[in-house]
Design goal:
- Strand 1, helix 2 and strand 2 form a beta-alpha-beta unit.
- The protein is flat, with a radius of gyration of 19 Å.
- The chain has 3 helices and 2 strands, in the order αβαβα.
- The chain has a two-stranded parallel ribbon with strand order 1-2.
- It is mainly α.
- The protein has 2 domains: about 40 residues; about 60 residues, no CATH class.
Length: about 100
Amino acid sequence: MDHKRITLFAGHYGSGKTNIAVNYALLLAREAAAAGELAAGNIDADPYWHNADRNPCRWCDYKAACHFEEGCGDARRYRRGVKAAEFWAWLARGEEDESDGH
């Protein structure tokens, strides 16, 4: 028997069920796309890096498949510190690109 996962969002009228359901569907679509890329062998690793002790590779579920190697097509991306006021101003402008380090 083939079982399928069903996710149910319940709540009162106006509680945000539709918003949560749409965001959940988008998350599942992104995960499926990422899984497809991994299955096709497209594994480009460009993690954001803080330092040797605080980096995403330490807790990444895919590190066994990724084999991050700087200089072999993989690159670390460093994020600069941002003050709260600067972050909120950037968010208010509605910018989506990350070219300025946000």
